[in-house]
Amino acid sequence: MSIGGRFLEVRKARGLNQVDVAAAIGVSHGALVNYEKGLREPPAAAIVALSKTYNVNPTWLLLGEGRPDQTSADEIYVRSIDIAWDYLTRGGDEPDKAALIKLSSALFQYLMEHGEISPAMSEKLLSLSA
Fold first, then answer.
1. At what angle do helices 18-25 and 29-37 cross, to 10 degrees?
2. For each of the chain's 130 residues, which pLDDT tens digit applies?
3. Cα–Cα distance, 105 to 77 (Å, whole number)
4. Measuring CA to CA, which residue among 92, 5, 90, 68 is closest to residue 41?
5. In a domain, 28, yes or no
C-alpha cells in the first residue's frame, strides 16, 4: 500500500471526510485527494500533521511498517507488566522477580509487534513463559 493509501485508511477508519481532514492537517482538499489517489506524494509537513492530529505512527505512514496506532513504548511496557503481575498473583502468592521480568518481557515484545493481545493468546503466552 502506498503512503496515499495509508492516508486514506486513516481517514476512513475514523469515519472522516476529506474536507475535514485536509483542514485539520493544513492542506487543500485537492491536495489530500491527490495524496490518497497516489497522484502526489505528501510533503513532510502533511505527514507530521496527520500523525500528530490523529495519533498515527509516522513510520507506518511513511513505510507501512509497524502498527498504525502510536502507543508509546512506555505505555506498552506498563501494560505488559500489569498483565504479567495479574497472571503471577492469581494464586495470592508474591510473584518471583525473575518470573515477572521474563513474562513482562515476552508480553512487551508481543505487544510491540502486534499491538493487541487476546485473552486466549495472553494465557497461552503466559503459560509458555512461566
1. 110
2. 899 999 999 999 999 999 999 999 999 999 999 999 999 999 999 999 999 999 888 888 888 877 777 666 677 788 888 888 888 888 787 888 888 888 888 888 888 777 777 878 877 877 776 5
3. 8
4. 5
5. yes
Q: Are 11 and 56 within one domain?
A: yes
Answer yes or no: do 83 and 43 share one domain: no
Q: Give me the domain span that covers residue 123.
A: 73-129
Place of cell 489517489: 37
With beta carbons less than 8 A apart as the criterion, state whether 47 and 19 touch. no
In-domain check, residue 96: yes
Place of cell 490523529: 54
Q: Is 69 helix (H, G, I), strand (E, B) or coil?
A: strand
Three-state DSSP class for residue 37? helix
